[in-house]
Amino acid sequence: MIVLHGVALSPYYNKVKIALIEKGVNFEEVFTPPSREETFLAKSPMGKIPYVEINGYALAESTAILEWLEDAYPTAALLPPSPNARARSRELMQLIELYLAQPAQPLTAHRVFGAPLADAQRAQADEAIRRGVGAVSRIVRTNPWLAGEDFSYADIVAASFFPQLSQVTAEVLGENLLAALPALDDYLARLGQRPSVARTWADRDAALSAFMARRGAS
C-alpha cells in the first residue's frame, strides 16, 4: 500500500495522484498540510507536499515520486519508448513547472489565499508567464499528447497545472495567458476524458469550493 500525503488543492499533489491512478496502483490518500514540525520534516525534508510512504519508506518531491513509480511499475509506462521522446516529455514537464507554474505563484496566492499582490509583482508574473507560454508553444505537439503519441509525464503536469493557470491568469491578469498554446481547448477536453484526470479534477474542484467557502465564512 502506498500512502499519498498532501492536499487536493496542490497541483504537485495532483501530479502524483494522476500518476498513481494511471499506474493502477493501490493507494490511500491522507489529508496532510505542509508543516515545519520535526516529525513532518523526517518524511519530507523541506516540509512540502506531497510525499508518499511506501511500506514505511518516505519519499518527497513530486518528480522523484513519478520516477520511482516508473521504475517500480514499468508496464503501465508514463514515458514514451524512445529516448528522444522520453527526454522531450521531461523537458516539457520542467518548462511547465519552472516557467509557467513558478511565475504564477504570487497570482495563485492572491486569488486563493488573499495574499497581497503589488503592481510590480503582477507585471513581472505577466511577462514571465508569456515568455514561458512561448517556450512551451515552440516544442509542444498535442497530437494527441504534448510529447507526441503517448500520454506521459508532460501531460500529467499539464493536467495538474493548466486549468489552474488558465483560471488564475484570466481572473487576476484579465487574460487567459495559456490560450496562446496551440489547440489548448481540444487538448484539455482530451485530458478530461481520461479517468485519472477526471477524478483528480473533480476532487480538486470540490476541495477548492470547500476551502473558498470556509475562507468566505471566516
Keywords:
alpha+beta; Glutaredoxin; 218 residues; Glutathione S-transferase Yfyf (Class Pi), Chain A, domain 2; four-stranded mixed β-sheet; globular
Low-confidence segments, given as residue ranges, are none
Round the mean pLDDT to the nearest integer and report it: 96
The general outline is globular
**Structural class, please?**
alpha+beta
The amount of beta strand, in percent, is 5-15%
Q: Could you give the distance between the termini?
A: 37 Å
Strand order of the largest sheet: 2-1-3-4
Helix fraction by DSSP (H/I, runs of at least 4): 55-70%
Total helix count? 9
Largest sheet: 4 strands, mixed
CATH class of the largest domain: Mainly Alpha
Radius of gyration computed on alpha carbons: 17 Å
Domain tally: 2
User: What's the helix-strand series?
Assistant: EHEHEEHHHHHHH
Based on DSSP secondary structure assignment, what is the total number of beta strands?
Answer: 4
Domain GST C-terminal: 82-211
Keywords: Transferase
Pfam families: GST_C_2 (PF13410), GST_N_3 (PF13417)
Domain GST N-terminal: 1-77
What does it look like?
- With 218 residues, this protein is an alpha+beta fold.
- The protein folds into two domains: 2-72, 3-Layer(aba) Sandwich (Glutaredoxin), CATH 3.40.30.10; 83-217, Glutathione S-transferase Yfyf (Class Pi), Chain A, domain 2 (Up-down Bundle).
- Helix content is 60%, strand content 8%.
- It contains nine helices and four strands; from the N terminus they run βαβαββααααααα.
- It has helices at residues 11-23, 38-41, 62-72, 83-101, 105-113, 119-139, 153-173, 184-192, 195-217, and strands at residues 2-6, 27-31, 51-54, 57-60.
- The chain has a four-stranded mixed beta sheet, with helices on one face.
- α1 (11-23) links the parallel β1 (2-6) and β2.
- α1 (11-23) packs antiparallel against α7 (153-173) and α4 (83-101) packs antiparallel against α6 (119-139).
- The N and C termini lie far apart (37 Å).
